[in-house]
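Here comes an entry:

___
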Amino acid sequence: MTMDPSGRERYLVDRLRRLRTACIVLAATVLLYAIVGWFLIEGFQLRPFGKVPEALPLSMTFFAAVLILLASRLRSGILRGGLPSIRGIPTDLGNLVSAYQRATLVSFAILEFAALIGLLVALLSGSSFYGVVLCVASFLSMLLRWPNAREVDRLARGRLSP
């Protein structure tokens, strides 16, 4: 798909508009998890699960941290699927945008799940600290992967690797 630079950018912005809306909702939910966890534990002194073994929240924290790291790896793998396997072949912008949308949504969904685990860690452990840390780490990871038309354009031109 060849088009002039301004038409190409307009096309990318239009294709990414709904993706950005979905990402805003997911990022806001992650922040909501952090706030709710903090208020329930620190504000209301809620301990819904009573005393649980320390290993459970600790292992859940490690699992959430692995998910945060895995989100980046999966995103890169999905993006590679939208690029031609041979360098000389021109990139199909439609396929690349579809792969970019899928990669971003999968990445954000995994980060959302990690933040939800953070809320559960806070509720299980009775301490909001690790839950908030996991939510903030997920949120910051989302900001680093925020949908950007210029990033897709640079991927299509071969100036950026996934």
About this structure: The mean pLDDT is 87. The longest helix spans residues 5-43.
